[in-house]
Amino acid sequence: MYQNFSILIAEDNPVSGKMLEKILVQEGHKVIIAENGRVAMEKFNNKFCPIIITDWMMPEMNGQELCRAIRAVDRQSYVYIILVTANNEKQKVVTGLEAGADDYISKPYNPAELIARLNTGIRFLRLEESLKKANEEIRKLSIKDSLTGSYNRAFISQHLPKELKRAIRYNKPLSLIFCDIDHFKRINDTFGHNVGDQVLKELVRIISNAIRMNMDWIGRYGGEEFIVVLPETDIHGAYFIAERLRKKVEAMVVKTMEETISITASFGVSEFNHETGYEVCGYEELINVADQYMYQAKNEGRNMVK
């Protein structure tokens, strides 16, 4: 993320600004120059810069005020601020650090020292980025089913109520499909659990590729049971989608060392309806109704949508 990033320089002295720019460009960095703190803040709001080098004394908004303005806004990524002061302004360094600066350098500055302090900031930002990536991986693991990659039961119980609230707020339909693989126990008993796991993964892959990306989602409700959540989709659209999924599952084949396995699944469909008042019963009722229709499909011969 921080390779070839932009550095924002806030410096009212054109000569000092050009000197800084030359040093930083020679190091391979992109530089944006602002003639005071106010302009620097405007440019920062237009283009995020992970590092800011700011002079202390500037018209309209000084370095201390710029630090406070940057820190006052909650941002997803950290901003590393280096404060530039004169040699006789050591007391201002403390004030600047308290205002939100991370480091300082004195004028006239040594280019080697400037680069060393800048690299300290870069190491800090790269460490922060690595930590964010690690936390994101942990978050993904906490909401995904480890076998199939679909969302897990915890995610369903947390996210489906949010989908329901959104449907209520914007007066939009919300539908749910309950899917259960037919005779799955027979597959495990006949071919083993490894093959059963392969069937589950292939089912999720087939369904995931057949629904809208970044809108619809699939979750593993338990065992061989899955739910597909369809925001902004009414019961007629959901039934059409469920029938399309049924056909894709019916055409699905899983190859083993010995033979090729074909499977089918039964589907039940339910819809949040503003008139019937499912919002009173909550998201569990949405699941239960689809589950009941799925069992009706099972009782009437399997491999169908109800």
Structure description:
The protein is α/β, with parallel strands linked by helices and 306 residues long. The chain has 11 helices and 11 strands. The chain has helices spanning 14-26, 37-46, 63-71, 90-99, 111-143, 153-169, 184-191, 193-210, 235-250, 278-281, 283-299, and strands spanning 6-10, 30-34, 51-55, 80-86, 103-107, 174-181, 217-222, 225-231, 253-255, 260-262, 265-272. The strands form 3 sheets. Strands 2-1-3-4-5 form a 5-stranded parallel beta sheet, sandwiched between helices. α1 (14-26) links the parallel β1 and β2. The longest helix is centred in the middle third of the chain and has 33 residues, at 111-143. The two termini are 49 Å apart.
Structure characteristics:
single chain; 306 residues; alpha/beta; Rossmann fold; 5-stranded parallel sheet; 4-stranded antiparallel sheet; 51% helix
